[in-house]
Amino acid sequence: KICLVFAIVSLALCEVSYAALPKASYVAGGVVDVPLTQTTAKQPKAYLGKHRVAVVPYKDNWTAVVGVPLKTKPGTIYLTVTTAANKTEQIPLVIKAKKYPKSYITIKNKHLVAPTKSDWNRIGPEQKVIHKALKHWTSRNDINMAFIWPVKGRISTPFALQRFYNGKAHGKHRGLDIAVPTNTPIKAPAAGKVILAGNYFFMGNAVFIDHGQGLITVYCHMNKIKVKLHQKVKQGQIIGLVGQTGRATGPHLHWGVRLNGTPVDPALFVG
User: Fold this and answer.
1) With 237 labelled, which of 1, 49, 202, 210 sits at a CA distance of 20 to 30 A?
2) pTM (two decimals)
């Protein structure tokens, strides 16, 4: 009977088994793939702090795909896993130190560096909408984490680089900037659903795609948006054209990836 149950569980997991997992990187802004010991057909739940973590079927078992917050200091953090039988275990994850470079950029439009009170009347409501989208959660297992590049070009700004606008620190870069000509087609790296699309003060023309279980991808500074809100997209489908709208000094795509509510390095998802 035990063998039969295990066979049924294995079959259920294989039917939606992933093509690949992100490359593991035990640093702030990285991704950690954690194999879970539960061999039940029911999906376990996992949390990092208060944020739910994606748990995916992989190689006849479940694997938690954990985004490590950028503010995480070197040391041990704990993943909390709750089984179908409501048993809880703490899995330690040892995070290593990583030093990210700095970048100094001059922006002529001072409103994009130091917004006025009038600008904040627009920015404030926009940020609420954006933050809500970044926390979006869809319970689904048919997620393909084997991404393709949305555009191919020179990486002009790497992930997590400390940015200084006109000499003032403005936090770490939460994505990859890929420098390509204006109107270069942008492709969806994986199948998903558009949960936000519009023009925003800092992001310019932007699109947010939900891929399931807190895996959200973001595309900013577009010249044109080629998809609509709630539209389902396939891997490789054109979602927009590269531009330099919003806070941008030249044509490029800002590509961001979020897991369990935190920005992670998009390069970990592609070849």
Assistant:
1) 202
2) 0.88
